[in-house]
Amino acid sequence: MLTTTNETQWLQSGEASQHSEKNGSPTTLFVFGDSYVDTGNVKIDEPGSWKDPYGITFPGKPSGRFSDGRVLTDYIAKYLGLKSPAPYKFRRLMRHRLKYGINFAYAGTGVFSTMAKRPNMTTQIDFLEQLIKENVYTTSDLSKSVAYLSVCGNDYTYFMINDGSAEGFPPFIASMVNQTAINMHRIQSLGVGKVAVGGIHPLGCLPPVTGLYSYKECNKTLNDLIVRHNNALNEAVTKLNQQAKDHSTFFVFDLYGSFMSVLNHPSDYNIKEKFKACCDGLSMKYICGSMENNVKKYRVEIDSE
């Protein structure tokens, strides 16, 4: 996982902020968001993360992650020295893991409602608030906890699909950032010690977009809009910290910079086709994981972790 200085400070947020134990590390991780952090909340009978080839490099079988292996949640938890938090859906079956936190993220969701008929971020935060009311987590637990919010663009995809205009994009960005800041403040007001949000990665460089350009280049116009979102998000988080007591409660993960670092130096990461998907359907009719008459209708190009 690539981290910036601010990200490292958040991950190591320790005694200076009085939100840690003796070793200076948080003890509990709460996760909210989408498929970039979902570790199993989507229904098992739905297509995708509970079917092959997902999970082939970790844990060796489908586990509800929209990845061949680990997702960002797993890497953050590992960095903190914690077990990956239990998916909210399995909270009753995995009570022994609740001390490490809970993952409330649902793939396909956003800050607002999207095409995915699953709990959006506001509802996910409602779930945490209800657990606090049920005394699943004490004030002490919360003060030693951190939260991560993944906002990776599903709202913008939904906006564009629903005939979102170029003129409407700037005000929609403002709405997105404003609601994200409200969500971060709400989580902190529930007692969580530190709250971080991921900036959006370069959506214009994702395979569904680069495929329109024969996988040769990114869509600069879309990336410029995402940069605008990220700049506004940084300003909003700066304002939140100015209003916070210790001025270092809220953080932004620079996922855009991390993605571009890889895309600009693909050979450093043993990547040969930087704009192509590692798993894709054999034609426009199919997607990763598609089957027809028990025959795979997708191709996979994945190296081991």
UniProtKB/TrEMBL annotation:
Which InterPro entries would you find in this protein's record?
GDSL, SGNH_hydro_sf
Q: Which domain of life is it from?
A: Eukaryota
What are the GO MF terms of this UniProt record? hydrolase activity, acting on ester bonds
- Which Pfam families does this UniProt record tie to the protein? Lipase_GDSL
Q: Name one GO biological process term.
A: lipid catabolic process
Q: Keywords on this record?
A: Hydrolase, Lipid degradation, Lipid metabolism
Disordered as annotated region, ranges: 1-25
Q: Name the family.
A: Belongs to the 'GDSL' lipolytic enzyme family.
Recorded protein name is: Uncharacterized protein
Give the lineage: Eukaryota, Viridiplantae, Streptophyta, Embryophyta, Tracheophyta
